[in-house]
Design brief:
Layout (H helix, E strand, L loop, with lengths): L8 H12 L3 H13 L4 H24 L5 H9 L1 H33 L6 H16 L3 H26 L19 H10 L6 H5 L9 H34 L3 H8 L10 H31 L5 H16 L5 H39 L1
Helix pairs in contact: 1-7, 1-10, 1-12, 2-8, 2-10, 3-8, 3-10, 3-14, 4-5, 4-14, 5-6, 5-12, 5-13, 5-14, 6-12, 6-13, 7-10, 7-12, 8-14, 10-11, 11-12, 12-13
């Protein structure tokens, strides 16, 4: 493998984190509190931990086929026609996920920053900017992810710092008091916030040290769980259950709730949103990169750059289908839940089982 096609495990970890944490960090507290009240932190943990066994399966598959990528492995195990069906499903998932992220990004930017700018203009702008990153090699994505990871940690630390003086820990109480019959539904909703982890399916084969890649993937997932928990605790401590339920994006509302003495920073909302825009850029880019790579391997096309540009109008059309932000969450949420189950769980499990069976047959 060429040097510019390899990526370090640290970069894979950072790529996973920055791809997963995009728009989900804004609405997750609202979604979890709406279902399980104060116990919304429980599905956040379970949702993240649920991904780990499938990451282990993926690692095992790559150990069985150390010199192959996911496309080569899948075609060897199931044949080109059958595995291409799986890949088309994942391609559809990445395209829909790109459309969802772009639309939520546009809704937030229009609501808080560019009130008079049409949604369509904002979506087209972020898609073309993200396309620039998506057309790069995996090594560039890894470097950008490492830079954005620092920005992400800075943002989370900043949120904690400005929230502590006004936080009320009693808003977290009581715990273990929710209707746990709703827990499966809450975990399904939380799992949606881990969408984007699938980018490691593609990045794994480019690792420069596959023996330790799984460790970094698990660490990345644990970091995501930790960040989600911190944001959940902060928002609930500041606002309480009722206010969090009424706000679609309570994470942004933190800036309006805190009161810093001496007007140290007057436009906290602008600062938080500016940092968040960079994070979304690092989410859309890898998702678009993954979609284009899958397209390239399904249809054996050589021009990666052309595919990226070809996908943009498709993503744009899908992103503007919902009439308003409520419809965005309802429609994309329902559709994505099926695709997430197929991608996060289905592909690793199917490859793992098929690879084991094929290896045992070949030995026999």
């Amino acid at each position: 493998m060429k040097k510019n096609e390899t990526i370090s495990n640290l970069q894979i970890r950072n790529l996973l984190i920055t791809t997963v944490i995009g728009v989900g960090i804004l609405s997750l507290p609202n979604q979890m509190v709406t279902i399980l009240d104060n116990d919304g932190w429980i599905p956040i943990i379970f949702g993240g931990l649920l991904v780990i066994p499938f990451a282990v399966m993926l690692d095992r598959v790559y150990k069985l086929y150390p010199d192959k990528n996911i496309y080569q492995i899948g075609r060897e195990v199931y044949g080109k026609f059958i595995f291409n069906i799986f890949m088309i499903i994942i391609l559809m998932y990445f395209v829909i996920q790109d459309a969802y992220v772009a639309r939520i990004f546009a809704e937030v930017v229009k609501a808080y920053l560019l009130e008079t700018t049409p949604i369509e203009v904002i979506i087209i702008t972020i898609l073309f900017i993200s396309a620039y990153l998506a057309r790069c090699e995996i090594q560039v994505l890894g470097r950008v992810a490492t830079l954005v990871y620092v920005i992400l940690i800075t943002l989370v630390g900043f949120l904690v710092l400005i929230s502590l003086p006004d936080a009320d820990p009693t808003n977290m109480l009581p715990v273990f008091n929710a209707d746990f019959k709703k827990l499966p539904s809450a975990i399904t909703g939380a799992l949606f916030s881990y969408a984007g982890y699938e980018v490691v399916f593609i990045a794994y084969s480019s690792s420069d040290d596959k023996n330790n890649t799984l460790k970094y993937i698990i660490r990345g997932l644990l970091v995501v769980i930790g960040i989600y928990l911190i944001v959940f605790v902060i928002t609930l401590s500041l606002f309480g259950i009722d206010q969090v339920k009424r706000q679609i994006w309570p994470t942004i509302a933190i800036a309006n709730e805190v009161d810093l003495p001496g007007y140290f920073l007057e436009d906290l909302e602008g600062i938080i949103l500016a940092l968040w825009v960079v994070i979304v850029y690092s989410t859309l880019g890898p998702l678009l990169f993954a979609a284009s790579r899958i397209f390239l391997n399904i249809f054996t096309t050589k021009s990666h750059d052309f595919i990226v540009l070809l996908l943009i109008p498709i993503i744009y059309v899908i992103s503007i289908l919902p009439v308003n932000v409520v419809e965005v969450y309802e429609k994309f949420g329902k559709v994505s839940n099926y695709f997430i189950a197929a991608s996060i769980m289905g592909i690793p499990a199917v490859l793992f089982i098929g690879a084991l069976v094929k290896k045992r047959r070949s030995k026999a």
